[in-house]
Design a protein that fits this description.
6 strands; single chain; 109 residues; 2 helices
Length: 109
């Protein structure tokens, strides 16, 4: 059987040292921004991908941080697991680039 792929948007709150102190997840960017508003100091917007095996085990996870108002081409591994940080996990689908661009047209993030 094929893996199950699930994407979700995340707003991370970081402290003065850059450590993540809180994370809030939503299925759509509009839903996340309705709860948080626009980006500001101490907040980072990221698209997260989870890849589940057909045995319902989390097989892989990747993060695509929005920088300069744009998503990168790939979700990257941020753990110290096999392959290490920076390993390409999955390409960011175009629908998420369009979703981000649409929100920017509406004034956020």
């Amino acid at each position: 059987m094929a893996d199950t792929i699930r994407y979700e948007w995340c707003m991370e709150t970081v402290d003065e040292h850059g450590d993540i102190v809180d994370s809030d997840f939503a299925d759509t960017l509009a839903e996340l921004l309705a709860a948080w508003g626009a980006l500001g100091p101490g907040r980072e917007l990221v698209l997260v991908v989870d890849i589940w095996s057909d045995e319902c085990d989390l097989r892989d996870r990747g993060w695509a941080y929005v920088e300069g108002g744009k998503l990168p081409a790939w979700c990257l591994d941020a753990s110290d697991g096999e392959g290490g940080p920076g390993r390409r996990v999955r390409k960011v689908p175009q629908r998420f680039h369009r979703e981000l661009a649409a929100q920017q047209t509406e004034g956020a993030p």
